[in-house]
Design brief:
With 112 residues, the chain is mainly alpha-helical. It has one domain. It contains five helices and no strands. The mean pLDDT is 78.
Length: 112
């Protein structure tokens, strides 16, 4: 007797929708904008961590915009990641670098 529960249709649709957003972002960054897969994974991890902290809808907002927007957002995420991974901030960013695209998505002024 099989005692495993089958996922509901709604759960499957939600899962497909969630992964659909990730697939769209992946395709846009790697195939359209020709970014490296490793960089995509780092950018997505950063954006998803922001969403986990309560800043919802970042990835969904990004994929609804044109390619230049997603490219700019990825650039700003890379800058943030470089700062987080750097022993020192010097040389990584210009003094008081404004993060316009990320700020737009988060609906706030954002600088490093």
């Amino acid at each position: 007797m099989d005692t495993r529960r089958k996922p509901s249709t709604m759960a499957i649709k939600c899962l497909e929708m969630f992964h659909g957003i990730d697939r769209t972002a992946f395709r846009m960054l790697t195939q359209v904008l020709h970014r490296e897969v490793k960089q995509f994974l780092m950018v997505m991890a950063f954006l998803l961590s922001l969403e986990t902290m309560g800043l919802n809808g970042i990835v969904q907002t990004a994929i609804k915009n044109e390619g230049w927007f997603m490219n700019s957002l990825a650039d700003e995420c890379v800058i943030c990641l470089q700062c987080l991974l750097s022993q020192e901030f010097s040389g990584v960013v210009e003094k008081s670098r404004k993060l316009e695209t990320l700020g737009h998505v988060l609906k706030t002024d954002l600088t490093l």
